[in-house]
Amino acid sequence: MSAAVRTRRRAAVARDQHESAFESILAGLVKRVPGALAAGFVDRQGETVDYSGRLDPFAMRLAAAHWRIVLDDVNRQPTFASVRWLALRAGRTSYLIHELPEGYALIVVLARAAGFSGWRRAVAACARALGDEAGWTLKEAPWFPMQVVADERRRPCSLRPEGPTGRPRPIVILGAIAGGLARRERGWRVRFDTGVEATLVREPGGVWYSDEPLESRHPVRIRPREKTR
Q1: Closest CA to 127 of 182, 189, 85
Q2: pLDDT tens sequence across 108-157
Q3: Contact call for residues 132 and 142 (beta carbons, < 8 A)
């Protein structure tokens, strides 16, 4: 059996539950984390709320329940009470476990050869999106995935259009980020066409993140006396 056939078969694993609004969020995470096979969103009791990826649903549920218990056991140790995420490498697969509010957790299953790189912003973006859907307020700094068109020097020049009839949205580079980035990452201070200024980072795999959303999170409100007829 060829590798391509095996890949198609893995991708065609049937779901055992209807997709919720969380599935597309988890699917985006799987696409952005290098080597990720699947991701699960699990509650305090170890029940899987939803999942996405190429793993068998039962295997994903089992892994999610197991690592939720492991995270609880770790937190019971006084030395590790403040631990909020774990990264573990096993014989055939690796795992990322990230704590979420109200006892929920995010479990990412990675291929054996996958390294633990390119996941922090992806997980932060996923946690923010899950929080928006669930109505949580997260303390950690959010990241927002961006679809960016780069020039021949691999600098950002526009955002990819949304939909077949959309137009590219220009990006103005204000300056390059000199420090604070990981190896092979590059960053720029930019201004979107909405007027929002943000730090835009390109990770080694070609995935882009912004530390601000495209639209301002703090819209300017017109006071009653400033309203016009």
Answers
A1: 85
A2: 999 977 777 789 999 999 999 999 999 988 877 789 999 999 999 999 99
A3: no
- Determine the distance from the C-alpha atom of residue 120 to the mean position of all C-alpha atoms in its chain, rounded to a whole number: 8
DSSP 3-state of 144: strand
Query: Rounded CA gap, 99 and 107, in Å?
Result: 9
SS3 177: coil
- List phi, psi (to 5°) of 53: 135, -165
- Up-side HSE of residue 200: CA atoms within 13 Å toward CB? 29
> Using CA atoms, how far apart are residues 21 and 34, in angstroms rounded to an integer?
23
CA within 13 Å, CB half, 55: 25
3-state secondary structure of 28: helix
Helix axes 120-134, 21-32, angle to 10 degrees: 170
Among 137, 202, 144, 134, which Cα is nearest to 173's? 202
Which residue is listed with tokens 């997709």? 19
Question: Which amino acid type is present at position 218?
Answer: H
Q: What is the pLDDT of residue 146?
A: 95
The pTM assigned to this predicted structure is: 0.81
Structure tokens at 100: 């979420």
Contact 118, 84 (CB under 8 A): no
| Alpha-carbon gap, residue 153 to 227, rounded angstroms | 46
